[in-house]
Amino acid sequence: MKPKRSLTHLIEHTERIYNALEYGVRIGNISRAARENGLTRNQLNYYRRDIKDNRIRQSHGGSRSPSTFTTEQYELLVATVVAMVNVRPNLTMREIAQEINSDQNSIFYKKVNKSRICSIFKELKWNYHSPTYKQENKYKIENLLKLFYFNTIIYNTDWKKIYFLDECSFSSRGFLLELRRSKAVGPIGEPVYVTNSTSISETYNGFFTISLDDCLYKIRDKTNNTEDFFQYVRELLESGFCKPGSLLVMDNAPIHGGIEALNALFELFNQYSVQLIFLPSYSPELNPIERFFGYIKNHFYRERNSHGSFLDEIIDTIDNSLIKNKELFIGFYRQSLNFWSEKKRNQYQRKR
Predict the structure, then answer these.
(1) Tc1-like transposase DDE domain: which residues (predicted)?
(2) Considering the domain boundaries, does residue 126 fall inside one?
(3) Rounded mean pLDDT of 25-43?
(4) What distance in Å separates the CA atoms of residue 57 and residue 65, rounded to the nearest whole number?
(5) How many whole angstroms from its chain centre is CA 178?
(6) Is the backbone of residue 212 left (phi > 0), alpha (psi -120 to 50) or beta?
């Protein structure tokens, strides 16, 4: 077994080879240079090819083997990959390789494979992440102006006078299938059956309006339309839930009607001295009621009583877990709106 050479010895050996090679090229006699330095001609010729051929690359294992591309081609390939990823960062490595290979004007004389793209990713220290998708139209000037208008109104209004309205749908199929336990006890080799009286095809739709400390809702087992929405708004205003001089915020969903319906809607709110404004497009994060809906669904997953009906569980979650806990509503408002006003953030800070 050959003894391992030290790093210093390898460096000295490499320097001796390159010095001998430089001397051999200068005198025009590689064989003589090899003999005078105690080396073989083949050793010098190997390193001579290494210098001449710019496709030779150092591999991860320490060996030296010819690459598919010249230095210029490899640099162009890396630049091409970077440009493609900057435009479409959700491309897979296979898709990147396929698009490069499909280019009829490609200068690469050999097909690019997935492994090559993977090695480029490693060289660039890139990896795949869970992306955050952003809506392009959200940042157009028209929507930014709406955001500024909405921001100004919210900033100058007491949270106690702000109400949020939206529609939400609850489907038992999504809830109950995920709530079913994947294991059940039974004899080995025999199937186990679990009976359940709850239907997995129940769907309920509801309109909800929240304030800083309360909620008014209407749930039904039918699909809502514009007429149902107007009926709910009338009941909302007639009940006095929204006080005169208050502000009601909702999104501009199709169910809220077209131009004529909107004009009628504004007239209805004016009769009760309630101001109506719409959320900027693609901005659900500004609506505390979205957090309200999220709490209902998350609480349902955690605390659901399997003996109750699907509708009873939803109502129980709203009445007993939400409406009785006023701090939750303040939290929904604070999480969505507190970045606009330090004064209001301090005013509605959670009590410790």
Answers:
(1) 162-305
(2) no
(3) 84
(4) 6
(5) 22
(6) alpha
Give which of 109, 111, 96, 105 is closest to 70, Cα–Cα: 109
pLDDT at 133 over 50: yes
> How many whole angstroms separate alpha carbon 328 and alpha carbon 332?
6
Structure tokens at 25: 């090229």
Distance CA 237, CA 168 (A): 20
Nearest partner of 177 among 295, 316, 310, 314, judged by Cα? 310
Note down the domain range covering 179.
137-185+199-347
Contacts of 227 (CB under 8 A, 6+ apart): none
Q: Which amino acid would we find at residue 172?
A: S
CB 165 within 8 A of CB 249: yes
The residue-averaged pLDDT of 170-175 equals: 70
Which sign, positive or negative, has the C-alpha torsion 322, 326, 330, 335?
A: negative
Buried b / exposed e over 146-155, threshold 16 CB at 10 Å, is bbeebeeebe
Query: 100-110 as b/e, with b when 16 or more CB fall inside 10 Å?
Result: beeeeeeebee
Total number of domains constituting the chain: 1
